[in-house]
Design goal:
Blueprint: H1 14-21, H2 23-34, H3 38-44, H4 49-56, H5 60-72, E1 76-79, E2 82-85, H6 87-92, H7 102-105, H8 112-123, H9 151-176, E3 183-187, H10 193-201, E4 206-211, H11 213-225, E5 232-236, E6 250-254, H12 262-275, E7 281-289, H13 297-309, E8 315-316, H14 317-326, E9 330-331, E10 336-337, E11 342-348
Parallel strand pairs: 3-4, 3-6, 4-5, 6-7, 7-8
Antiparallel strand pairs: 1-2, 7-11, 9-11, 10-11
Helix pairs in contact: 2-8, 2-13, 4-5, 5-13, 9-10, 9-11
The protein binds S-adenosylmethionine.
S-adenosylmethionine binds next to helix 9.
Length: 351
């Protein structure tokens, strides 16, 4: 019997993912207190995000990840474009205040995970990004060492993501509404489990999985397990440089854009928009920060994890909408939640 990608788990795994990502909050908070002196600095002089980046000698992406998490924790707020301490932070995190607990947090200042987080924030380069460290997980582009190019590491990281995909794919298939679609292009599809769920839900649908060659070996095996190989094509390439197939009426970017910094996100959305026919749809399946960029906390902490492993972070729905509209696509539906904090945003290429 082929695996059923449409079967829901009996229980919701979201809390397990939240516990797993909880260390990011501890590491970022300790780094802010014990390594960047961030609360003393903002207590003296509130400032904009850009000015804070300069003050801390950090690039925009790490500053964004750090500040979003601290805002989501209720320690910072933004008023008139300037970051300032909340009452909670002023009372407990400003050195020398009556109820300062910074020394207590400093107990973790030299822990390996905090030191690693400080290093990542300062360098703005993902874990493993040197070839001698095996290459970065999940991302490939010209000029970086990528773990997705070697058989063993590509397999390891690709199969790891199945742990989320098999739990969330049934919900994606339910909310995607692809009854009228004929050909799905799943870019950066990994194992392909999301595409397989959509294929099982919609028997007339065909799919092309586009990914790196070593990842596609895993996807091909998986397609056999799910009994959909005869409805799949496997195309290897670089999604930033190689031509994208133009015969798909639906493109899926599932957990792909959050691996990349702003220029790559914009470029990839532009490429998808060009590849789609009029009336075609681009589906972004991802997590979404709120538009104020101050939460929700689980997504702010996941953003720190994405920051550590890749060149990306979590983005807000407003950021995605801006890129989609710049690429000439129209978003007309609310985001539909799927699972484990993910949701589906769909944009259409106007006729
Ligand atoms: C985080 S994984 C997402 C996998 C799957 N879509 C999911 O939701 O679980 C990102 C995928 O993008 C692929 N990828 C990264 N850079 C790529 C590139 N330049 N061209 C094609 N695929 C790429 C990776 O190999 C990986 O399978």
């Amino acid at each position: 019997m082929p695996h059923n990608a449409l079967r829901f788990p009996a229980t919701d795994p979201t809390p397990i993912f939240e516990h797993f990502r909880g260390n990011q909050g501890s590491d970022l908070l300790t780094a802010a207190v014990a390594h960047f002196d961030l609360f003393a600095s903002l207590d003296r002089t509130p400032c904009s995000l850009d000015d804070l980046a300069q003050r801390l000698s950090l690039a925009p992406r790490p500053t964004h990840v750090l500040v979003t998490a601290l805002r989501a924790m209720g320690l910072l707020r933004e008023i008139d474009g300037r970051l300032q301490l909340t009452e909670l932070a002023r009372e407990h995190l400003v050195p020398g205040s009556d109820f300062d607990c910074g020394d207590y947090l400093g107990l973790a200042a030299q822990s390996p995970s905090v030191l690693q987080m400080v290093q990542l924030l300062k360098t703005n380069r993902p874990l493993g990004s040197d070839a001698s460290d095996g290459g970065a997980a999940f991302i490939y582009r010209d000029g970086i060492a990528s773990a997705m190019e070697a058989t063993d590491t590509a397999r390891h990281f690709t199969l790891a993501l199945a742990g989320r995909a098999k739990n969330v794919a049934p919900a994606l298939a339910e909310v995607a509404g692809l009854a009228d679609a004929t050909h799905l292009l799943d870019i950066g599809g990994g194992t392909g489990i999301y595409a397989f769920a959509l294929l099982q839900k919609h028997p007339p649908l065909q799919a092309t999985l586009f990914d790196r060659p070593e990842v596609l070996r895993v996807a091909q095996e998986m397609s056999e397990r799910y009994g959909v190989t005869n409805r799949c094509q496997f195309m290897d390439g670089d999604m930033f440089a190689d031509p994208l197939p133009v015969d798909a009426d639906t493109i899926l970017l599932s957990n792909v854009l959050h691996d990349w910094d702003l220029p790559e996100c914009q470029a990839l959305i532009e490429r998808c928009a060009e590849a789609l026919p009029s009336g075609g749809r681009l589906m972004i399946h991802d997590v979404f920060l709120n538009d104020a960029l101050d939460g929700p906390l689980p997504i702010a902490l996941y953003s720190a994890s994405l920051f550590s492993f890749t060149e990306g972070r979590a983005y807000s729905a407003a950021e995605y909408r801006d890129w989609l509209e710049t690429a000439g696509l129209e978003c007309y539906e609310p985001i539909r939640p799927t699972g484990v904090h993910c949701g589906l945003m769909t944009a259409i290429k106007p006729t």
